[in-house]
Specification:
Length: about 375
């Protein structure tokens, strides 16, 4: 459990063994896995188990910094290098000298910046923005991504030479659904940790409650599980976690799945629940992203479930199938009003998440399961400044 690394499943044991093997070396490391699987925790462990542990660990989220500023943030800038640059400034690489720099969401890095990163990895040399002077830096690079970088290389979004350089040492963190046997360990760890922090007497968890949690898909992975456990323990004041308590705090889609609520092949309004806590918001935004693939069908089904019988297209009626097991006449659908547009639902999800995090955009992006750069773009698109 050192460094907060928890797991006894074969997948986690393999990841931990790889970590212990490469951490004492000075090799660059690429950590891959879905959002919420613990990539930054592993990055910290690489640093703490290395000979550089007494020097800085600098964490940079490449997706959180606008493309126009990323280069100056990483490599520094001379006075007057760009509008508003009133003095020389050090970059993150210079700050991390002799230590470790962690580049999270490296798949978001622009091609031009990738060229400079490759130069540093190969020679330790770089130049500040606005200067031709060559500087030297001694750093170890740990990078992380939830993207398939091999695919990004094929699409021309990521340099092949940089990919080969990074991918020589890869630690893959599996999604929680692929190692559910680790769930009891994780739950107990998070529960005891928050109880100690809040000075609560934690009374444990029932077997049935544990079974329910183990059966969930956890799209937000360990982060989603941690948030749920910490919320339950805190709000229930350390009381024993029972089946009823778990059901009360689970997001609506998970409850429906668990309780066997009838579903159809159609997308349901219930799939976009009113957010009651963090997991709900993330589930809603993920659902919205999926729904965007077929907006027309979404409008049809939303209208159908709201019992509004009008025509989706002015000249040609659209017929929707009845839900499974329900007999009756096909339902005629008409245009969906503006308030039911997918964009308004997406905007509402972002507004709700921003309120929940008190405007903290990094936390908002994590909550919604998107990159900060995507969040910034959506905020500008919807005028949520």
């Amino acid at each position: 459990m050192r460094f907060g690394l928890i797991g006894e499943s074969p997948a986690m044991v393999q990841a931990l063994a790889r970590l212990l093997q490469v951490a004492p070396t000075d090799l660059s490391v690429l950590i891959t896995g879905e959002t919420g699987t613990g990539k930054e925790v592993f990055a910290h462990a690489v640093h703490d188990l290395s000979m550089r542990k007494k020097f800085p660990f600098v964490s940079v989220n490449c997706g959180a910094i606008p493309e126009t500023l990323l280069e100056s943030e990483l490599f520094g800038a001379e006075k007057g290098a760009f509008t508003g640059s009133v003095e020389q400034r050090k970059g993150f690489f210079e700050t991390a000298h002799r230590g470790t720099i962690f580049l999270d969401e490296i798949g978001e890095m622009p091609i031009g910046t990738q060229v400079k990163l490759l130069r540093i990895l190969e020679s330790g040399e770089y130049s500040r923005l606005g200067s031709s002077d060559v500087l030297k830096v001694d750093i170890r690079l740990v990078a992380a991504t939830n993207r398939d970088l091999a695919y990004e290389v094929r699409q021309g979004n990521f340099r092949q030479d940089l990919f080969f350089r990074l991918n020589s040492v890869n630690i893959h963190l599996p999604p929680l659904r692929q190692h559910p046997e680790d769930l009891p360990l994780l739950i107990e760890h998070f529960a005891h940790r928050v109880a100690e922090k809040q000075q609560l007497e934690y009374e444990g968890i029932d077997n049935r409650a544990m079974e329910i949690l183990a059966s969930m898909p956890w799209p937000g992975n360990v982060r989603e599980l941690r948030n749920l456990v910490e919320t339950m323990v805190t709000l229930e004041q350390g009381s024993r976690i029972t089946e009823d308590i778990v059901l009360r705090y689970l997001p609506a889609p998970s409850q429906n799945e668990l309780l066997g609520t009838p579903t159809t092949a159609l997308i349901r309004v219930a799939d976009v629940p009113k957010p009651t806590h963090d997991a709900d918001i993330q589930m809603m935004y993920r659902t919205l992203l999926q729904l965007s693939a077929d907006v027309a069908e979404v409008k049809t089904v939303l209208r159908h479930l709201l019992n509004m019988s009008v025509d989706l297209q002015p000249t040609n009626s659209v017929v929707t199938p009845s839900p499974a097991g329900v007999q009756g006449q096909p339902i005629k659908i008409d245009p969906v009003p503006e308030e039911l547009e997918l964009a308004s639902l997406e905007r509402k999800a972002i507004e709700t998440a921003l309120r929940r995090t008190h405007g903290n955009r990094r936390e908002t992006a994590e909550l919604l399961g998107i990159s900060e750069r995507t969040l910034y773009r959506k905020i500008e698109e919807y005028g949520l400044q």
